[in-house]
Structures are given as structure tokens and as C-alpha cells.
Amino acid sequence: MKRAVDERVQQLLDRMPEDLLEAWEERAAIREYDAGLSRPHAEAMALLDLLDGEPELLSNVRAYRVDLDDEPRYFVSSSEQLLREHAAILGGEIAARRSVTWTVDEEFGGLAELTDATQSLSR
User: Fold this and answer.
1) At 111, is the secondary structure helix, strand, or coil?
2) Is residue 101 within 8 Å of residue 111, measured between CB atoms?
3) Beta carbons of 9 and 21 less than 8 angstroms apart
């Protein structure tokens, strides 16, 4: 994957999942070649496009759906690796990654309650 010209842009890109990096690179190329922007300007504008659609990219927190015996459960985590380990202990695996906002709105009708998932392991 190509590195951003501007280090500040790259710092934000380093937090993004791979699929969004591909979207960023494509948007930057379109802005550079079709709109005639300089590469640094095109990269910054492409990053703003992604942040406009997913402002949570500024944090490392994501919502995940974990399928356990065909029953979906939802988790919020700042570490996908930690969640993978937790899901494996529960006998499931990550089925989807979404923004927290999308998950709360679409899966919980605008309101969700968080609990300490690690508590269920110690019981």
C-alpha cells in the first residue's frame, strides 16, 4: 500500500482497516487525476471523504458482530486481536466489523447498553 505524502495523513491512515485504505487510495487517485489536485491535496481530501462517512476512524474503537451458535452478539473493542481471542474462547468468530454509530443505530435502534465482556469469562 502506498504511503501518504503528508505524515499527518499517514498517521491517521495507520489506524484504518485495510479495506478503507484501498478506498482512500482510490479516492486520492481520482481527485489527483480527474480533478487535477496535487498529490498531497488529493490525499488529504480523500481522507476527509472517509472521515465524513466514518468519523470513528479517528479512534481505534470499532463494533464487531461475533456469531456464536448462529446467534449474533455485538462487541465494542479497541483491539481486534483481543476480540478475536475472546471470541475464540466463547466458541465463535468475528463475522463483521462496523462503526459503533452504525451498529448502535442499525442493530439496537439508537440505544445500546455496554457490559464488561470479560466478566462472563470469570464466572
Assistant:
1) coil
2) no
3) no
Residue 35 and residue 73 in contact, taking contact as beta carbons nearer than 8 Å: no
1 vs 15: CA distance, rounded Å: 14
Reported as a single tens digit per residue, the pLDDT across 67-94 is 988 789 999 998 889 999 999 999 999 9
**CB-based contact 76:114 (threshold 8 Å):** yes
Residue 4 has a CB neighbour count (10 Å cut-off) of: 22
SS3 93: strand
Whether 75 and 63 have beta carbons less than 8 Å apart is answered as yes
pLDDT of residue 69: 85
Residues counted in the chain? 123
CA 28 to chain centre: 19
